Amino acid sequence: MYKRKDLLGLRELSADEIMTILNTAKEMKAKIDDPALRDKSLEKSSIVTLFYENSTRTKMSFMLAGEYQGAIVKDLGVATSSVSKGESLIDTGVTLDQMGTNVMIIRHQLTGAAHILAKNVKASVINAGDGSNEHPTQALLDLYTILERKGGFEGLKVVILGDISHSRVARSNAFGLTKLGARVTLAGPSTLVSNSMKSLGVQVSTDIPSAIRDADVVMGLRIQFERQRNMPFPNLREYSSLFGVDAHMLKYAKKDVLVMHPGPVNRGVELSTDVIDGKNSVITVQVKNGVAVRMAILKLLTENNSRQ
Amino acid sequence: MSSILIKNGRVIDPCNNIDAVMDILVKDNKIDRVEKSITDSADKVIDAKDKWVMPGLIDLHVHFREPGYENKETIATGSRAAAAGGFTTVCTMPNTYPVTDNAVLIEYALSPKRNAVINILPIGAITKGQQGEELADIGTMAAAGACAISEDGKSVDDPSLMKNAMRYSKMFDLPVFDHCEEIRLAKGSMNAGDRASMLGLKGIGNDSEELIVARDIILAGATGCRLHLCHMSTRGSVQLIKEGKAKGVNVTAETAPHYFTLCDEDITDYDANFKMNPPLRSCEDREAIRQALKDNIIEVIATDHAPHHIDDKNCEFEKAANGITGLETSFALSYTELVEKGWLTPAQLVEKMSFNPARILGSDKGRLSVGSAADITIADPNEEYIIDVNKMVSKAKNMPYNGRKVRGKVLYTICGGNVIVENGELTKEYR
Asked: Domain ranges in chain B?
């Protein structure tokens, strides 16, 4: 069951709620490839995307997920909106709320932005990434992909590699995977992986070969140059040689390891090109599953919210 | 002139080493007599049976936002909030707009036109515009009535400029109230640790405070200046202060009620009423701060009363302004958290909220000596109540304590012989 008004993060969700979303996504996936299966179940719903940060796949994926179900989907061009005149987030949200918006999808550079929006509007709010906090729909599509390929989570070893400290993807995945029974290791240079992450119930490692050993899933994360103030490592060459994953490094993992990445990828930095495009990679599958998962979330939230 | 007789109260006056049931007679705005039993008639008689009668509370650290941010607080409204909290003297920080960095603005704060109901002691900035580039008019500010200098809100980044400020202010016997923060280590919005990891907020480590505490204790040792460290929050700072004192450095320290009452684990949501600088630290730090109060390594409780408009707080946590209000909750929180829980005796509490602040200012306030100004606070330590943010006198409502049960209620605030607060309410004349 999923009875919440909003989807703000995986931290507060139960395993049952997560599985409800994943099971609903399964019904949705066929509709992506076969337009004949699509219905107009969301034709009475309006969806607005508010992206205070750039995005290709998340925004497009949400917009298509809405349109495949017949919803009215609009994008607030944040750069060309009243936000550029200094309008506060709450005021922008209340304004869109008054226009009858059913779902607001927000990405913001500050942690907690989606939460404060959700508190102030009747519309359902979906967090599409807030600061260095959470990116729940990315984690849900990752979970869906793992479920699809591995059939379950119990006992799986999942290694998340790279720029952990700035990564909302790593955090949402850590919350979700541990709730579903997977063992999670966060790995990378000590300047990017903080020991305090252990409080999320995960392992923390700076030794990539031992972290990857016998892994069922290896998830690479992009080095977020835009969030670095002081470079946390000397240069990219050193980073990729010590912390990047290439075909040789991948041999430490299980033979049927899934290689994942939320994109966009810095090719040759966190993952080598042969790994990105290799037989274990499900990076492009993740993108398609992203649409299915977002269709499921939109369906569940609009069922719950009558804007009362 | 009018007279006030305070009967049968528990008089707690650490300066004169008194903690006993006594009567106090106020005449001509001064304390006339303090004796076991005074039977003189008076214009006003206050029955203080089972109540604490203390020298008026003194807060070394408040922000009254005037001039510049009058939508948050003014000297008029802030001084009334202070009186409601039992304070008869407060020191106002200079991070106003424009910055209080010259004698004219010191005089502005002291002007009767500001309509204060208690004693206002303005603090001057250390550097011009708090820009950290050149010294503010420290000498002329001292002459105009500044009680200290401070860069509060940030540290003076350049150690040589800070050292000069210490040397120079010493000439005028002005203490330096030091905000300790290495800003390059403080790019976060809450304490670094498990809770920050949980909430996805960037953390500020204890090192950002302790680095400047260490630096400025060394500089105070070198210059002989009177260094007073503001809002101490970490166990490492406590250790550094202890070592500094042992070496004979002239250093004192304050903490604020939130650092001994709350910790970072109290931040559960993105409620910016829990955001301040320095941030709420770990439970271990809170324990160290309580112990440091007990050991008198930290000798002052100051509120760091930091009023903000709701718009500055009802927004994204990382964007929200730092600081919480504190004047109207300080006595109750200090009593509930420190005296009831056995960290401080009643006399030690009064010392930290009145006598010690006065000593740091080099003032003869903070005592109930015959002949001194009649600044007196009367509180009922037993009265239990629930903090209600909507009942606060301050213009601002940004505090994390709404709904919290406390004990210790300020009933009377008498400043210079004038009854500002009576039965817990501002009197008509001073409303």
From this structure: 3-53+372-430, 55-361
Summarize pLDDT for B276-314 with one digit per residue, the tens. 999 999 999 999 999 999 999 999 999 999 999 999 999
CB–CB of B225/B250 below 8 Å? Answer: yes
Helix (H, G, I), strand (E, B) or coil at A160: strand
Say if A194 is an interface residue toward chain B (CB within 8 Å): yes
Q: What is the pTM of this model?
A: 0.93
CA distance to partner chain B, nearest, from residue A304 (Å): 23
Amino acid at A180: L
Which residues fall within 8 angstroms of residue B271, CB to CB, at 6 or more apart? Answer: B317, B400
CATH of region A15-134+288-304: 3.40.50.1370
Question: A38 vs chain B: nearest CA distance in angstroms?
Answer: 37
Domains A15-134+288-304 and A136-286 share a fold: yes
CA atoms within 13 A on the CB side of B365: 26
Report the DSSP pairing between strands B3-13 and B87-92: unpaired
Domain B55-361: CATH class, spelled out: alpha beta
Domain boundaries, chain A: 15-134+288-304, 136-286
Q: Is the C-alpha dihedral spanning B110, B114, B118, B120 positive or negative? A: negative
Which residue among A89, A90, A197 places its CB closest to the CB of B197? A197
CATH code assigned to A136-286 = 3.40.50.1370
Tell me if A286 sits within 8 A of A141, measured CB to CB: yes
Establish if A171 touches chain B: CB-CB under 8 angstroms: yes
- pLDDT tens digit string along B226-248? 999 999 999 999 999 999 999 99
Q: Is B409 within 8 Å of B380 (Cβ atoms)?
A: yes
Quick check: A121 contacting B, CB < 8 Å?
no
| DSSP H/E element including B237 | helix B235-246
- Any A CB within 8 A of B205 CB: no
Question: What residue in B sits closest to A88 (Cα-Cα)?
Answer: B315
A1, with CB counted inside 10 A (0-12, 13-18, 19+), is: exposed
Q: Closest chain A residue to B311 measured between Cα atoms?
A: A88
pLDDT digits (tens, 9 = 90+) for A119-153: 999 999 999 999 999 999 999 999 999 999 999 99
Q: Determine the distance in angstroms separating the CA of B263 from the nearest CA of chain A, rounded to an integer.
A: 17
**Percent of chain A as helix, strand, coil, to the nearest 5:** 45, 15, 40
The tokens describing B356, both together, are 């010690």
Report yes or no: A68 and A91 within 8 Å, Cβ to Cβ: no
What's the token pair of residue B406? Answer: 């406390």
CATH number corresponding to B3-53+372-430: 2.30.40.10
Nearest CB partner across the interface for A116, out of B197, B311, B316:
B316
Put simply, whether B269 touches A (Cβ < 8 Å) is yes
